[in-house]
Specification:
With 176 residues, this protein is mainly alpha-helical. The chain has a single domain, classed as Up-down Bundle (Four Helix Bundle (Hemerythrin (Met), subunit A)). Helix content is 63%, strand content 5%. The protein has a two-stranded antiparallel ribbon with strand order 1-2. A hairpin with a 3-residue loop joins strand 1 and strand 2. The chain is globular.
Length: 176
């Protein structure tokens, strides 16, 4: 049976130290496509469907949508810190607790989808202006250690697809 937590497989950074310019461009394209893919994944769902967990003991579709925005807002800020400070120590956030807050449990998904569109527009302007040296910059996470901007680009190229697949797999299983 497929692990419903990882419908496209768990994140795995490239084995090599850094991605090529072509790979970076493809990852940026994935980040660019994420808002439209997420919007399409939830199109036409009613509140009952939005409040359905994508797996047993998992988040609801609504929580997944709001989580993507929470995560990408944090990522955007972390990229900016890494570009303006030397290996800054970033503060992690309790994503499971954030997903239980009232706005994540009940806000219309359109609010987060609109925010994601705007956020990704800004993020992509930044990403596409970065130099190869910028992608070598690092930040330090208390739980993950030191990470390069390049690895985080890989992560966020995967992240949007990962959560869209949670929703589309649920829709397929439920016949929505």
């Amino acid at each position: 049976m497929t692990d419903l937590r990882y419908p496209i497989g768990p994140f795995k950074a490239h084995a090599k130290d850094h991605t090529t310019a072509e790979e970076k461009a493809a990852l940026m394209d994935e980040i660019e496509a994420a808002p439209a893919r997420l919007r399409a994944a939830v199109a036409g769902l009613d509140d009952t469907q939005l409040d359905t967990p994508y797996r047993k003991d998992g988040w609801t579709v609504r929580q997944v949508v709001h989580h993507v925005v929470d995560s990408h807002v944090n990522a955007y800020v972390r990229f900016r810190w890494a570009l303006t400070e030397d290996a800054p120590l970033i503060k992690p956030y309790e994503e499971k607790e954030w997903a239980r807050l009232p706005d994540a449990m009940s806000s219309p998904v359109a609010v987060s989808l609109d925010l994601l569109d705007s956020l990704h527009t800004r993020w992509l302007i930044l990403l596409r202006a970065m130099t190869p040296e910028d992608f070598e910059r690092r930040w330090t996470s208390p739980d993950l250690g030191e990470l390069s901007v390049d690895v985080m680009l890989q992560l966020y190229g995967w992240h949007g697809k990962h959560h869209v697949a949670h929703i589309t797999a649920l829709r397929e299983r439920e016949g929505w």
